[in-house]
């Protein structure tokens, strides 16, 4: 797999245009086995970095032991550290991190784990500016990625990309029976022609934004939050919720 710009950093080193990234012996190329996270960057700072790295490690641990997951996490952290000086040059953008294991490169320190970081500048759409909101869809499209290499955020973004882009949903939560459901990256509610539609995944990952809201003092119990806790005086039924993670802002959809 080759890259075509200087936006890519592999194992702490920036890649030149056309320079190979993952070798053919990498699990990402040979079998599509890789894991990724997409982070929003504000004023040169990756938002909720610790939570995203933790979720990335958790995804790896579903298929590998704890030691391998730790090595994957260290590889991702090295990549972020190497890219930090460049991130400070841009006001807003996104950073995609993908980790994979190359058995041909196994050593005592890394265990063969590599991390590729992709930086891309984000330019707001006219619709998002009009609504006063913004969105970065967490997706990494690559033909070499199989089912194990696609995170839940990739799957939901395929369904909700157009709808979410105009509305600025960083994470979209499903509301059922007056309860906001956990697992924002696994369930998306969107509106089309006056009707609400839902796409769900059985592989639900923890919502990074909900975790941040918990730490900020918002009470969440049993994976759900009563809508009335957000707006006690509202008599209008809430159909969905958009969370803007960089601002810790919740906006009801009615």
Give a description of the structure.
- The protein has helices at residues 27-31, 49-61, 66-87, 126-131, 152-167, 208-215; strands spanning 8-10, 13-14, 35-42, 45-46, 92-101, 113-121, 171-176, 179-181, 187-192, 195-200, 224-226, 240-244, 249-253.
- It folds into 2 domains: 8-123, Aminotransferase class 4, branched-chain amino acid transferase, N-terminal domain (D-amino Acid Aminotransferase, Chain A, domain 1), CATH 3.30.470.10; 156-253, no CATH class.
- The protein has 6 helices and 13 strands.
- Residues 1-6, 128-170, 182-192, 194-205 and 242-254 have low confidence and may be disordered.
- By secondary structure, the protein is of the alpha+beta class.
- Strands 2-1-6-5-3-4 form a 6-stranded antiparallel beta sheet. Strands 11-8-7-12-13 form a 5-stranded antiparallel beta sheet, with no helix packed on it. The protein has a two-stranded antiparallel sheet with strand order 9-10.
- Strand 12 and strand 13 (249-253) form a beta hairpin.
Topology overview:
Layout: E1 8-10, E2 13-14, H1 27-31, E3 35-42, E4 45-46, H2 49-61, H3 66-87, E5 92-101, E6 113-121, H4 126-131, H5 152-167, E7 171-176, E8 179-181, E9 187-192, E10 195-200, H6 208-215, E11 224-226, E12 240-244, E13 249-253
Antiparallel strand pairs: 1-2, 1-6, 3-4, 3-5, 5-6, 7-8, 7-12, 8-11, 9-10, 12-13
Helix pairs in contact: 2-3
